[in-house]
Amino acid sequence: MERESDTIHPNASEFKDYVENYADINGIQIYYEFKNISPDVKENEKQSAVLLVHGWTANRLRLHPLYLHFMQKGTPVFRLDLRGNGWSQKEAINDFSIQKMVEDVEQFIKQVICEKYGFSSVILIGHSMGGSICQKVATTIPSYIKKLIIMSSSAFWIGNIFGKLKLALYAIYYRINYWNRFNGKKQGHKQHGLDHFPMWSNKYNIGGRTLFTAREATIQGIKSLGSFDIRKEIKTLKIPTLIVVGADDTDAPPMLSQKIHDLITNSTLVIIPGVNHDVAIGKPITLAKEIDNFLDNS
């Protein structure tokens, strides 16, 4: 029986049709790519552009099936690497907190998508930690966000002092066992096929440039998740919001998505059966249909 994850071609490791771009955002270099962007700024003003934001220890290619979907539909779409991740700047940075990443995404929307390319608004899509970042961005610059899509995410990650203590110990363990943990991730990715995770491919890890997340960005990401909580802020959101989660997600269980849904009045919750945290890879066709339905009818 063919899996949905096997039907998306070309996969990220095979994808060759891209142009490299860097933007100076908050004093650091942020790498990004885009498709279906008209050179005529006035033409872009008539549309909203999609922005894909990846999660912790990931990169722009983690949501590659969605990028392909929008590309093939002719929808203007951007994807970026967060600071310390993918091909964005990793050196000479002290702060890799979620808050700084929020500020980077805000400025990328303002400076690149809206000012440079002329779009009037953004359809903001985030996965996991990226979904948390997107929720925060939507509360701080709501006039720029037309619609919000949150996948496999949460408005808070740790609910009590014991959880925060456990996370602090986990951060220490991760620092000591950094590469062992990455090798563990590699084993976990094999069920989907490693071709969907280009960080393991030499194609993207050459010439001194790698997709692997910087060690300090990895550790600070863990710590930031421990203090992240925007439940109060998202209560005020009026932006149409789609919340998607895999029924088998153990990293961000469906109950966390349910809580987001309960807090955001104008929101829709979709739980996709038979998939875990990597919903964009495991169920790309189902996910694309849910997103299209939301965008067409909300």
Secondary-structure map with pairings?
Layout: E1 21-25, E2 28-35, H1 41-44, E3 48-53, H2 64-73, E4 77-80, H3 98-116, E5 121-127, H4 129-140, E6 145-151, H5 161-176, H6 178-189, H7 215-227, H8 231-234, E7 241-246, H9 254-263, E8 267-272, H10 279-282, H11 284-297
Parallel strand pairs: 3-4, 3-5, 5-6, 6-7, 7-8
Antiparallel strand pairs: 1-2, 2-4
Helix pairs in contact: 3-4, 5-7
Index terms:
single chain, 298 residues, alpha/beta, Rossmann fold, eight-stranded mixed beta sheet, 11 helices, 40% helix, 16% strand
Polypeptide structure, described:
The protein is α/β, with parallel strands linked by helices and 298 residues long. It has a single domain, classed as Alpha/Beta hydrolase fold, catalytic domain (Rossmann fold). The protein has helices at residues 41-44, 64-73, 98-116, 129-140, 161-176, 178-189, 215-227, 231-234, 254-263, 279-282, 284-297, and strands spanning 21-25, 28-35, 48-53, 77-80, 121-127, 145-151, 241-246, 267-272. The protein has an 8-stranded mixed sheet with strand order 1-2-4-3-5-6-7-8, sandwiched between helices. The longest helix has 19 residues, at 98-116. The protein is globular.
